[in-house]
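User: tokens in, sequence out, please.
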């Protein structure tokens, strides 16, 4: 981990995340939405919203995964973060999250539910600290980490990228 990132991670109390990188939940709404009011993809009620700090440093990767809720990424500090997305129709796109708006970066990006997505820092000698807000709120039961075999079979045209952002 980059030295500055390590200091920030310690100050914020970040812990390893199953998808890669480091995180800490900072908000979970007390109020909940009941199962009857949610789409069928949810197995039960969910908090209105949740939010985490998330950090990638150097060669860290957020491996391809998807969740049942929409997720908004907010840029805080460090270098540009590149999000790789494969939508339900199999279309690939990238989003650069950062503060250099004139260079095509955006300080916020929305990932619609059900999209596969992965992330990396653009400058491998730096880090990216972001926030992720999920609504309805995040629950690990809604989290699916992709397998390399599954994604390569479904999207063979992206197999080289998938191999980089999945565990064999």
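Assistant: Sequence out:
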């Amino acid at each position: 981990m980059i030295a500055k990132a390590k200091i920030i991670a310690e100050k914020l109390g970040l812990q390893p995340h199953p998808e890669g990188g480091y995180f800490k939940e900072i908000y979970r709404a007390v109020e909940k939405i009941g199962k009857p009011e949610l789409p069928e993809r949810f197995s039960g009620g969910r908090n209105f919203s949740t939010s985490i700090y998330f950090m990638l440093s150097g060669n860290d990767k957020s491996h391809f995964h998807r969740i049942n809720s929409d997720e908004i990424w907010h840029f805080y500090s460090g270098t540009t973060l590149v999000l790789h997305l494969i939508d339900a129709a199999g279309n690939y796109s990238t989003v650069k999250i950062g503060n250099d708006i004139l260079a095509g970066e955006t300080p916020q990006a929305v990932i619609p539910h059900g999209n596969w997505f992965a992330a990396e820092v653009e400058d491998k000698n730096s880090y990216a600290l972001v926030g992720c807000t999920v609504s309805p709120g995040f629950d690990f039961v809604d989290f699916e980490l992709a397998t390399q075999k599954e994604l390569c079979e479904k999207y063979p045209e992206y197999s080289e990228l998938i191999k980089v952002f999945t565990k064999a």
